[in-house]
Each structure stands twice: as structure tokens, then as C-alpha cells.
Amino acid sequence: MSLVQHFIDTLQRHLPNGGRVVIGFSGGVDSRVLLRLAALYRAQHPNLELLAVHVHHGLSQHADQWLELCRAWLMRNKSLLSPSMYCLI
Predict the structure, then answer these.
(1) pTM of the complete model
(2) Is residue 72 within a helix (H) or strand (E), and if so which, with residue range?
(3) CA 30 to centroid of chain Cα atoms
(4) Where are the alpha helices (DSSP H) in 45-62?
């Protein structure tokens, strides 16, 4: 089974009638792949509410850079997520 099919099957099993999926968005490859999969799924299932959240925790000297990486990725992928679907705090 492919990663995409496994993801679809999991969402359909746990959220058969839609619902809300909140993804912690670090900007790393794992969260970008997860977010892309969820956005593609949502395009076919509009009853799913999707929200990506990045929290600038300030615990690392790189926190400002991580926030900017997330912002840049979201701007490059506007077709996947509208501004109401993400929160950068």
C-alpha cells in the first residue's frame, strides 16, 4: 500500500464524516509531507477542516528562521492552503 493510500484510508477510518485535522507545522520535511497529503485529501473532501499551526517558541536561536521557512513554504503552496487554513504564532 502506498503512503498516499494509507493516509487516505486512515483519515476515512477515523473521520468518515469529516471533522477537523490540526497539523503541527515545523516546516521540516515530515510536516510538509503530512500537510500536503492532508491538503490534497481535503480538496476531495471539503467536509474536512484542516488547520496547520506553527508556534514560534523562541527556545532556539533558529526559531525566527523556522518561522520564515514555514511562511515561505506556505506562500509557495498557496494552491494547497488558503490563509484561513494556517496559523503562524
Answers:
(1) 0.83
(2) helix 63-76
(3) 10
(4) none
Helix residue ranges, H only, 1-89: 3-14, 29-44, 63-76
Task: Dump pLDDT digits (tens) for 4-51.
Answer: 899 999 999 999 898 999 999 999 999 999 999 999 899 899 899 999
Q: Which amino acid is at 1?
A: M
Residues 58-71: pLDDT tens digits? 999 999 999 999 99
CA distance 59 to 52: 20
Cell 490540526 sits on residue: 22
Place of cell 520564515: 68
21 within 8 A of 38, measured Cβ to Cβ: yes
CB 48 within 8 A of CB 41: yes
CA atoms within 13 A on the CB side of 69: 14
Write down the residue that cell numbers 484510508 correspond to: 9
